[in-house]
Design a protein that fits this description.
Aminoglycoside 3'-phosphotransferase, Chain: A, domain 2, three-stranded antiparallel beta sheet
């Protein structure tokens, strides 16, 4: 069952910064303080307000927290309320980390530049492309992203802001990341992922020049540099997987020891679009449950919205599939539904290609999908070693990202795991990650 609501993650009391239309500010101190927010965020909201029908000089802007610890690494979220008289409108504002070290070490500005491209150009382009093909509604196509009011990035000035709707106001809810996804939610995700990938396959055939700007490289390649600060951390995360295996798991241990020898090459290989051509697509790149919300009718998920597009890249479609299946489900779910989930995805992709006036047997035959699953399927364990421990960790036990970033600044290395097992999560983590290894072997991916 989904979380009660994302709003439950927001503190009930906070420091409120108020800006009137003339730019004057006052701060009301209460128990949990909102940090001082950058001037460019205030400026962006003052620019947006008149476009939203507020009267210049007569509105106020108040800020509150927009997410909880662990909901984002390369950005921070704040809730802005613009008020004039009896009218109040709520917006979510995503900005780079306020901490200088965290912003630099986690390449936040590059990630924001990528996400701004998504909201400013990619999504409007694929929406227009679908409508030109006669696909007009959410029931038939992929229009499942938040409404974006403003997206701006200036990497040189270290300024970026994305202002979007608060989906909670339309009764969307965030799935509890500690829970295994269920069949209904998995089906909804696979259906819309198939539609999203189909648009890439069709559009690059119909309009290759228009599609070309969105063929972005793997954003994680810099992490794999021989002298990069993340290499020791990657090895540490992988060693956690090996340490979670039991003494009798001899095959699993041997496979993971071999992967340890090749892990950097494998991470790079799975991100090479040229190895997937001519079937590479624009993928979301971060398909876990914290980056999607659901709207329910009588307890049944009826609508999904995908957000957090900061690692969107041009790559094999298998990446998004493996990321979701191996990080958001467990061994029991995969035993029951693994092949069905792949079928749902492909059937949706095929149906969408037909609506876009193409033939799936030409643009992406099922046999090719099966082949690419074997070629790139180990991406599931490569991402699982990062995501599974986080999904098993309570929010109050998540690492201090600012402290890690500062350490990287001082030492140019990160010699530890992002997410360590604790007494409270060790058993849950070990069970989950062992099944990821076992299933990767079972399906021929490892």
């Amino acid at each position: 069952m989904a979380d009660q609501a994302l709003s439950s993650a927001i503190p009930e009391t906070s420091n409120t910064t108020t800006t009137n239309g003339h730019g004057e500010e006052r701060t009301e101190s209460v128990s949990e303080q909102v940090p001082e927010l950058p001037a460019y965020l205030h400026a962006a909201l003052k620019q947006l307000a008149p476009k939203e029908g507020f009267t210049e000089g007569n509105f106020t802007i108040e800020f509150d927290f927009g997410s909880s610890k662990g909901d984002g690494f390369v950005g921070q979220m704040f809730k802005a309320t613009i008020s004039e008289g009896d009218r109040r409108e709520v917006y979510l504002c995503k900005i780079p980390p306020l901490d200088d070290a965290r912003r630099e070490q986690f390449s936040s500005m590059a990630a924001f530049a990528r996400e701004v491209l998504v909201y400013d150009r990619f999504l409007p382009t694929i929406y227009e492309y679908q409508r030109a093909k006669g696909i007009l509604g959410r029931d038939d196509g992929f229009f499942h992203t938040p409404r974006c009011y403003l997206a701006h990035c200036d990497e040189t000035a270290q300024e970026s802001v994305i202002i979007m709707e608060d989906l909670r106001l339309r009764e969307f809810q965030l799935w509890n990341k500690h829970n295994i996804i269920d069949y209904a939610h998995g089906t909804l995700f696979m259906t819309h992922l198939g539609r999203l990938h189909a648009i890439s396959l069709a559009m690059k055939r119909d309009q290759p020049e228009r599609f070309a700007p969105f063929k972005l490289p793997n954003p994680f390649d810099p992490m794999l540099k021989a002298d990069g600060p993340f290499r020791n951390m990657i090895l540490s995360q992988l060693q956690m997987v090996i340490d979670a295996l039991r003494e009798q798991d001899t095959i699993e241990r041997a496979k993971m020891e071999q992967l340890k020898e090749d892990v950097f090459d494998e991470l790079a290989r799975c991100g090479k679009a040229e190895l997937a051509e001519p079937y590479a697509v624009v993928g979301h790149g971060d398909c876990w449950t914290n980056n999607m919300m659901f709207r329910y009718e009588e307890g049944i998920p009826k609508e999904i919205v995908l957000f957090d597009w900061q690692v969107m890249r041009y790559v094999t479609p298998v990446q998004d599939l493996m990321y979701f299946i191996f990080c958001c489900t467990d061994g029991e779910f995969r035993r029951k539904y693994y092949h069905e989930m792949i079928d749902i995805y492909y059937d949706s992709l095929s149906t969408m290609l037909t609506k876009l006036q193409h033939d799936a047997s030409e643009l992406f035959p099922r046999a090719v999908l099966d082949e690419q699953l074997l070629v790139f399927g180990r991406y599931g364990i490569l991402m699982g070693m990062f995501l599974v421990p986080m999904m098993c960790t309570r929010n109050d036990e998540l690492p201090d990202i600012e402290a890690l970033a500062q350490k990287m600044t001082e030492t140019q290395q990160l010699d530890e795991s992002f997410f360590k097992t604790t007494e409270s999560n060790q058993e849950a983590y070990a069970t989950r990650i062992r099944s990821v290894v076992q299933d990767s072997i079972r399906y021929g991916y490892l």
